[in-house]
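Section 3.1: Structural characterization of target chains.
Under the original work plan, the team committed to producing a structural model for every single-chain target entering the pipeline before any wet-lab resources were allocated. The record below documents one such target. The sequence was received from the expression subgroup and is listed exactly as submitted; it comprises 438 residues.
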Amino acid sequence: MTFIKTINLKAYAAFIIINFTAAFILVTCFSPYGADMGSLTISIGDSSRAIWQGNEYLDFEHEVIIIGPGGTRRQTFTGTGTARFSNLASGLYSINVRAVGDRPAAYNQFPSRMLRAYGIDTVEIRSGQTNNAHISMLPATEVINESQFRAALNNAGNAEEYILIKNDMEFPNDINLHNNIILIAEDTVTISRTTGSGSFFRLSNVHLKLGAMGMRGQLVLDGRGNLIITDVPSSTNIITMYDGITLRNSISSTGAVDTTGIFNMKGGIITENNGNGVSIHTGGIFNMEGGIISNNKRSGVNVGGQAGGGTTFNMYGGIISNNTEAGGGGGVNVTGGRFNMEGGIISGNTSYFESYAWGNFINGGGVHVRGGTDVTFKKTGGTIYGNNAGDNSNRVIGASRGHAVYIVQFGARPEKWLNTTVGPGVNLNSETDANWQF
């Protein structure tokens, strides 16, 4: 009898183990917090330089906010620490970290406890894995009106700093930037010009970042008739623009952005400007990796102008669409410099009729390239389609050529144009056939 009881107990134990294992598998497979969920550990530090004096960071109150497929999650801690999140759905998450501390003496018009540092990044959460991220913090100031904004600029050091825009603001005068700043938002806010003319932001040897990868708000720069961003002559500047930024309502013919420096467009929208979307000239470089340039009343991108030596537009991605230009180049108008297209889309742009002293023309709805032997267009990728070089109805014009692309180089070769979609691998400047056209 003793032996039988022992066997039964072992069988019962095995039964329990098997059923427990099966239940665990069911929960893991079908529970919303099962094996397809991941966890995230976030460490926080400065970005290779001190953003606080001594040990004052021990008093900082940190708020860590993550936003992704699983919604919005928050954690807070004081001083040093690590934020940990579990049961996260797979996908891309943005991370925003606020650090609030005692106000420095120089910021006497700000609250006694104010934003002191900020960090932004993104992280990919993978199924069933422990994911890690390190957020590099930078000095930061939260502003709610124009006077605080200008005070933050005056107090900023030479190194990079965040300025967090909390409320809609209006500026009556230009803002001259001499500091490397990053403009960010946590909500949807607009800063705009109310009066005057000229440049909204005027840069002098700085790197201006509009937004940041992972920024959780939307920031609109409304020119209200003014040029939004331009350079001080003979200065070296870098502008980097990310998703969440919109530039609109510049009435200047040169564009919402007019620069001789370097403009890196990684995201965002440039739209509804009375002139060009972007003008790059006098040796400037425009690298378009993402974002949208659309519905501007002149060319989406103007390359070169009257002084285009060494000017370059590199298009790696993004969309240029539904822009219009008198004469030629609704999408991209190259009158000096180089246009290298490796990716992206140019579509739905239009060149329309306008009379000039040297004659009437409607050329290059998508891309218009015109100038001497130093002007080039090279296409190795991307798509150009659905553009329009004018409307001939009831009009007498000299020509209507190149709905997709029109190129002419004075003194070098005959005019060339394309009325169809241009595919990858086309290099217009390598053609040797003098009669080449289609």
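Residues 1-7, 9-35, 392-399, 429-438 have pLDDT under 50 and may be disordered.
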